[in-house]
């Protein structure tokens, strides 16, 4: 099996990015937090107006997503998350608490991905397996299981743990504007870097004679 054939057998990164929401989806999700910060600033730090701006933008983004063919369930979940974030900030009276759900969700994601590796069900393998229609066949390939485990650690540390550290520090110190900026910068750009690095780790871990991600070498 030539190196070219192995490369061609791997799933395209664009497909994985699309599965995770893609650049447009990540940027759309960043708009309500930006709207919150802008509304909060221009109204002399009014959490109420910031919350209203975030919800209004979220509704507008939802309408545009529906027009692009997105499922209504996903749109409603995104809207509910923004409303919940706004209610938390309004309840506590702390603008930085608008970003608390984002912080906690990344803590949960880091733990979930780490646990998945420990129990030998690395989530990157689960995601790619679903994408390729393999179900759990990849787990019967020791080389693929090892490669997916190592590549999944990239997601744990480079994406989720990094976000927890940045968001947590800014939230603890009450840096609302910086939180809005970080929420945008650590969306699609960070996902793109994570996909690239984890893809490199994945293929570097596989033996050179391995047929590729689409062809698990099953051992019974």
From TrEMBL:
Keywords of this entry: Membrane, Transmembrane, Transmembrane helix
Lineage of source species: Bacteria, Bacillati, Actinomycetota, Actinomycetes, Pseudonocardiales
Record Pfam families: DUF3159 (PF11361)
Transmembrane region(s): 47-67, 72-90, 110-132, 153-173, 185-206
InterPro entries listed in its UniProt record: UCP010219
Descriptive protein name: Intracellular septation protein A
Domain of life: Bacteria
